[in-house]
Design brief:
heterodimer, A: mainly alpha, Ferritin, 63% helix, elongated, B: Ferritin, 4 helices
């Protein structure tokens, strides 16, 4: 296997992740062919709570990446930061600006803004664990979505989390 | 897109992936990479069989696989073989995500996890390796 992972490589891997988010952000129509009748995230949206939950989870992951990059050296921080960037994209995709921004995730906790003083290796392990948990969570959360397009975005968020966990694990293994 | 339409789309992608992995297995070095290719091929065959059953259960007849598939670029060595594997898994991850969205809640989680498996293989075949190993 090749052994160089450039930022471009990481971003390419993120195609699985970000293409869906970008598309999702541009539409509010259901893939089942039934237009969404309510404002996504609005008071009448049956997926309002789910959107808030997933958005809060993604916000927490963004915060975790931000904290991790502070303890990683130079190029590693840049690369890891690019891996984590998609969480902001998914947060925006699942919860439009008009929706509630209540920062309560699936676990009921608020987004983390700091990471205790840890080594770079520990920081990566924390990210791997967080991405692995996020992948599992998105798979189950997607089943709760009423809107098919929201479901697709959540599924793609899960694929991105799984891919990130694999990429970060590969880094840890070397 | 309906669940049936999505399932047919994924079936087509899966048939292509099975064919592609035959090319990949022939070009990557023997050992772990060839083993990975053959394992992936077997996994996709399992998914294919399940998809065919699902399409039948949805009231349709699964389309037959093509006799051959033309890769989007020449597969002449291990590098191009890995690129092909990356491409087919990347496409399939998106297709499975589409099927998950069109599925009932009961099937959605399973389809989502299948998409994740494809996405993980994208990482494997693209040769993702660390630049941060020095930090560990």
């Amino acid at each position: 296997m090749p052994t160089d992972l450039s930022r471009r490589d990481v971003l390419r891997l993120g195609l699985v992740v970000t293409a869906g988010a970008g598309l999702a952000a541009c539409t509010t129509a259901s893939t089942s062919g039934t237009p969404t009748q309510t404002d996504p995230g609005g008071p009448e949206d049956p997926d309002r709570a789910l959107r808030a939950e997933v958005a809060a989870d993604e916000a927490r992951l963004s915060a975790l990446y931000a904290a991790a990059t502070k303890v990683l050296p130079g190029v590693s921080a840049t690369t890891v930061s690019s891996v984590g960037q998609r969480h902001a994209d998914y947060r925006a995709a699942v919860q439009p600006a008009t929706a509630s921004t209540s920062p309560v995730g699936a676990s009921g906790s608020t987004p983390a803004s700091t990471l205790p003083a840890v080594s770079a290796g520990t920081a990566l392990k924390v990210l791997v664990a967080a991405e692995t948990a996020a992948a599992a969570a998105r798979a189950t959360q997607s089943a709760r979505a009423t809107d098919a397009e929201l479901a697709r975005v959540i599924v793609l968020a899960g694929t991105g989390a799984a891919a990130a966990a694999a990429a970060l694990s590969a880094g840890r293994a070397r | 897109m309906s669940e049936l339409e999505s399932a047919v789309l994924v079936l087509g992608g899966t048939e292509a992936a099975i064919y592609a992995y035959g090319l990949v297995a022939a070009r990557v070095p023997s050992g772990s990479q060839r083993s990975s290719a053959l394992s992936a091929m077997a996994w996709h065959r399992t998914q294919r069989d399940a998809l065919r059953a699902r399409i039948t259960a949805l009231g349709s007849t699964p389309p037959a696989a093509a006799a051959a598939y033309a890769p989007p670029f020449p597969v002449t060595d291990a590098a191009s073989a890995r690129r092909l594997a990356t491409l087919v898994e990347d496409r399939l991850a998106g297709q499975w995500a589409g099927l998950a969205a069109a599925s009932t809640a009961a099937a959605r989680t399973r389809d989502a996890l299948t998409a994740q498996t494809c996405a993980t293989r994208v990482v494997t075949w693209s040769g993702a390796a660390p630049v941060w190993n020095g930090a560990l």
